[in-house]
Structure formats: C-alpha cells, structure tokens
UniProtKB/TrEMBL annotation:
<protein>
    <recommendedName>
        <fullName>UPF0102 protein G4Z14_05965</fullName>
    </recommendedName>
</protein>
<dbReference type="Pfam" id="PF02021">
    <property type="entry name" value="UPF0102"/>
</dbReference>
<dbReference type="GO" id="GO:0003676">
    <property type="term" value="F:nucleic acid binding"/>
</dbReference>
<dbReference type="InterPro" id="IPR011856">
    <property type="entry name" value="tRNA_endonuc-like_dom_sf"/>
</dbReference>
<comment type="similarity">
    <text>Belongs to the UPF0102 family.</text>
</comment>
<dbReference type="InterPro" id="IPR003509">
    <property type="entry name" value="UPF0102_YraN-like"/>
</dbReference>
<dbReference type="InterPro" id="IPR011335">
    <property type="entry name" value="Restrct_endonuc-II-like"/>
</dbReference>
C-alpha cells in the first residue's frame, strides 16, 4: 500500500471507530493526541474512565492485530501517562487501553482492555 493511500485508509478507519464509540455513549475527547512519548489515535471518556484507543487497519482483523508491537504499546503507555497527568485525578484516573481492528471491508472488532491480556 502506498504511503498516502495507507495514511488515508488509517484516517478512514479511525473515523469508523470513532463513530462506534460515540454510538455507545462514549465521548471522543482527542484525536491523534500527541505527547512527548508518542501519539494516541483516539482518546474517549466513559464517565470518569479515560479510554486510549489504538486503531489498526489491514486486510483482515488478524493481520491488523499483527501490526501492534510491544514497542508501540510502550509508546502508548508513555503518552497515556502524560495525558492523564493533566486530568483532575492525575495518575489515579481510571484508564483502559482498547485496540480497534478494522478489516478491508470496514468491519470493526474492538478488543477492550487489550493491553491487560
């Protein structure tokens, strides 16, 4: 996939995932949030809980899941820690890390609390 095509496919996948979260009553509070440690695709709120969402897009859900590396997870953890530093409860803020897999047909599979596994 070319760089530009891949970029726009990623944006489209993020938009689809954003709609799923909003339909389930969660508010998207940041898109492509960037801190010194890295970028988080989407940040949502579910009451007091902050949900950090990594979106992975590929031909199949399995192929999309293979794109998430330990290095990326560490980067997301670092960025998330920086993000919640600005929350009223700081590091005591309840958080969850979800991975949203988007296949070539636009079907979405959300793995809630995926980093805990």
């Amino acid at each position: 996939m070319s760089g530009a095509r891949s970029y726009y496919a990623g944006l489209a996948a993020e938009h689809l995932v954003e709609q799923v979260y909003e339909r389930t009553g969660r508010q998207i509070c940041a898109r492509r949030w960037r801190g010194s440690a890295g970028e988080i695709d989407l940040v949502a709120r579910d009451g007091a809980e902050v949900i950090f969402i990594e979106v992975k897009q590929s031909k199949t859900h399995a192929m999309a899941a293979e794109h998430l590396t330990e290095r990326q997870m560490a980067r997301i953890y670092g960025a998330a820690s920086e993000f919640i530093g600005g929350e009223p409860a700081g590091q005591l803020t309840p958080v969850r890390f979800d991975v949203a897999l988007v296949d070539g047909q636009g079907r979405i599979e959300i793995l809630e609390n995926a980093f805990a596994a």
